[in-house]
Design goal:
alpha+beta; two-stranded antiparallel sheet; two-stranded antiparallel ribbon; globular
Length: about 100
Amino acid sequence: MPEEVLFQSEGSQSRSEIASYLRRVADKLDAGDDITLTAGEQSVTMTPPAQPTFEVKAEREGPTDSPGELSIEFEIEWGEDGDVGNGESGGGLEIE
């Protein structure tokens, strides 16, 4: 299925700045509020449902014999038609 990017922002941030962004998203989710993302001229507002699908990935990209790039990805997804997704899980998530 084709992907349409509605908003994108990428840049170097301190760990503290990233934590602040994540806290704001967490607070909006807790309150059941819309989430508005803004950077420059770009802006999008999204309304996550009460129970979206939450995906967490830890990845390493690059050649197997030399340093690559590591990432932690957090994704909250739901269908535009109100469908909350497949909800598959390999067990309970724990973040320590």
